[in-house]
Write a structure and sequence with these properties.
Elements (H helix, E strand, L loop, with lengths): L4 H4 L43 E2 L2 H7 L8 E4 L7 E6 L5 E6 L8 H12 L6 E2 L1 E7 L2 E7 L6 H6 L8 H20 L13 E3 L5 E4 L24 H4 L4 H17 L11
C-alpha cells in the first residue's frame, strides 16, 4: 500500500466511534481480518459477493445476537441507527446496519432502495452486499472494513497522525467514489463526514456505502454533525448534489487542519 501504511493501521477491529477514544498502540501495524471461506453467493469480477437477501437468523448469529460488544458505530439521537460487525458461517466478516423499526415500515420500498445501492460496485467503496426485511426488521449488509475510520486516525491518534501522502490519497479516493456514484445515477450521499471514510485490510480509504441509502422512507437525511452540512440543510433537511459537494469540502478541511468540530460546537 505504500510508505504510509505503518503510520495509519492499528487494530483489526474498529473502535466504537461513539466513544472517540485514541488508540494506544505505540507501533501501529497492519492487521487484516481472518480470511473468508468460499462464498455461498455468486462473486462478481471485483471479488465482492453479488447483492442478495439475508435471513434475520443468519445476521443474528453473525453478530452474536447483536451484542453490544460487536457495535462499531452508533448514529446518535438524530440518526439512531446502529452498525455491528459480524461473521458469517463462511468466515466472511461483514458490517450490519440496523435501522429503527419506524424508519422503513414498507418492506418493498426498503428493498427497492437497497437494491438500487446494491448494484454499485467500485474499489473505492465499502460495497453493499445485501439486505434483510424480516417482519419489522430492516438491515443492510456491507463489506467490513477492519482498520477504523478517518475520524479516528485524524482526530483521535496518540503517537503519530496521518502523513500528508495518505491525506491526499483519502481526498482523491473519496472524490473518485463520489464521482462513480454520480455517474451511476446515485449523486446523493447522506451525512458525508470523516466517520464515513473507512480503511480496508490493505489500509486504503473507502467510502461507506451506507451513506448512499436514505435514512428513512421520507427521504430526509439525519445529519449526525451539522458542521458538515450547508446552511440550507437547516431549512429543509434534504440532501442535494450541491450539499454533497459542500460536505466533501468540509472533509477536505478536516484533512488539511486535522481538527475536529464536535457536534456540541456544530453551530458556533
Amino acid at each position: 500500500m505504500g510508505c504510509c501504511e505503518s503510520s495509519l493501521l492499528a487494530e483489526t477491529h474498529p473502535e466504537k466511534d461513539h466513544h472517540h477514544q485514541p488508540h494506544n498502540s505505540s507501533n501501529p501495524q497492519h492487521h487484516p481480518p481472518p480470511s473468508a471461506g468460499p462464498d455461498t453467493a455468486t462473486t462478481t469480477a471485483t471479488g465482492v459477493p453479488s447483492f442478495s437477501e439475508f435471513s434475520f437468523p443468519d445476521l443474528k448469529a453473525a453478530t452474536n445476537n447483536f451484542t453490544s460488544d460487536f457495535i462499531v458505530s452508533e448514529g446518535g439521537d438524530r440518526a439512531p441507527n446502529v452498525v455491528y460487525k459480524g461473521r458469517l458461517q463462511n468466515r466472511r466478516w461483514i458490517a450490519v446496519k440496523k435501522f429503527t423499526k419506524l424508519a422503513w415500515p414498507d418492506p418493498k420500498q426498503f428493498a427497492e432502495e437497497a437494491w438500487g445501492v446494491g448494484k454499485l460496485r467500485h474499489r473505492r467503496l465499502a460495497n453493499l452486499i445485501g439486505y434483510c426485511c424480516d417482519g419489522d426488521e430492516r438491515l443492510l449488509v456491507a463489506e467490513y472494513m477492519p482498520n477504523d475510520t478517518l475520524a479516528k486516525h485524524l482526530f483521535h491518534w496518540e503517537n503519530q497522525t496521518i502523513e500528508w501522502a495518505m491525506r491526499l490519497r483519502v481526498a482523491l479516493y473519496i472524490a473518485e467514489a463520489l464521482e462513480y456514484c454520480s455517474s451511476e445515477g446515485r449523486p446523493l450521499y447522506h451525512d458525508l463526514n470523516a466517520y464515513r471514510v473507512l480503511f480496508d485490510e490493505d489500509g486504503d480509504p473507502r467510502l461507506s456505502c451506507f451513506g448512499l441509502m436514505k435514512n428513512s422512507r421520507d427521504g430526509k437525511s439525519y445529519s449526525t454533525n451539522l458542521a458538515y452540512t450547508p446552511p440550507e440543510y437547516l431549512r429543509n433537511g434534504r440532501v442535494t448534489p450541491e450539499s454533497v459537494i459542500y460536505s466533501f469540502g468540509t472533509v477536505l478541511l478536516d484533512l488539511l487542519s486535522g481538527k475536529h468540530i464536535p457536534p456540541s460546537h456544530e453551530q458556533d
